[in-house]
Amino acid sequence: MVESILRPGAATGAAMPGYAPWQPPGELPATRDAGLAILEALAAADEPMSVAEIARATGRHRASVYRYVESLSAEGFLRVSGSPRRFSASWRTIRLGLLPLRFRRNRVRDVALASAMRLVQETGAQAVLGFYEDGWAYCSDVVQDVEGMPVPSFVGSAMPGITSGGGRVLLAFSSAAEMERAACAHTPAFTAHTITGHDAVLEELQRTRARGYALIYDELRPGHREVAFPVFDFESRPVVAIGVLFQGDQPPAALVERLRLAASEASRQLGYNPAPPSPAI
């Protein structure tokens, strides 16, 4: 079953080159609230930061940052270490970010994750769930084949929407205004293959919509190749994407078809009912 869809050795349970762990390659959009801006900066930082470093990272005045880190530390959202003092996000902050997906029922994610797990069990592929919001793509889960069993892992990482399969396909089926906004946004060239620039982004989104699914070739990092289909809800909105990683120049046709069926089944469970074709006259 696996061999008919994947190249030999692909269903090993190991992450494909350049994919896992998927780290945020860019910075999240700036927020107006100083406290949230400080938490975002510290959550994305590799090392604890001083007040001066936080002020530079957030564009806030040092006196203002000092007041906020004192309050956030007292409430347990920041850890303090060293002398002079340096600050980092605490596990309480991390848990706060995980709560909406890990501990609250989210029907869209539940349905898509169940479809992705069935897909992995049947094909041995590595599947990912992607969401899109305000120009950014968010990978919530990765499902891998481990000795014949689909094993999901929570990821929770972010990247510019156009650079991931999930973000791209959800963008392609969004409004013309949202596609235009994404095309106007600055996308860093993570590799020589990253699609950037207004016209190139719009053309790729139009090709993606016409094709019905997104294809990513080494755009986020070398070796990252992905195909992703959108999942629609009862209001015909694209709400989540299911993608799989592949190797080689093209994804296997059988794998693409199985992925399409997985996304279609998830859409059906969310109440999506595509309009029937108009009768021929």
The secondary-structure element order is HHHEEHHEEEHHHEEEH
Summarize the main sheet.
Answer: 6 strands, antiparallel
The CATH superfamily label of the largest domain reads GAF domain
Name the helicity range: 25-40%
CATH class category name of the largest domain = Alpha Beta
| C-alpha geometry | globular
What is the count of helical runs?
9
Low-confidence stretches: 1-29
Name the CATH architecture of the largest domain.
2-Layer Sandwich
CATH topology of the largest domain: Beta-Lactamase
Share of β-strand residues: 15-25%
Distance between the termini: 43 Å
What's the quaternary structure here? single chain
Rg from Cα: 21 Å
Number of beta strands: 8
How would you write the strand order of the largest sheet?
Answer: 5-4-3-8-7-6
Average per-residue pLDDT, rounded, comes to 84
Q: What structural class results from the helix and strand content?
A: alpha+beta
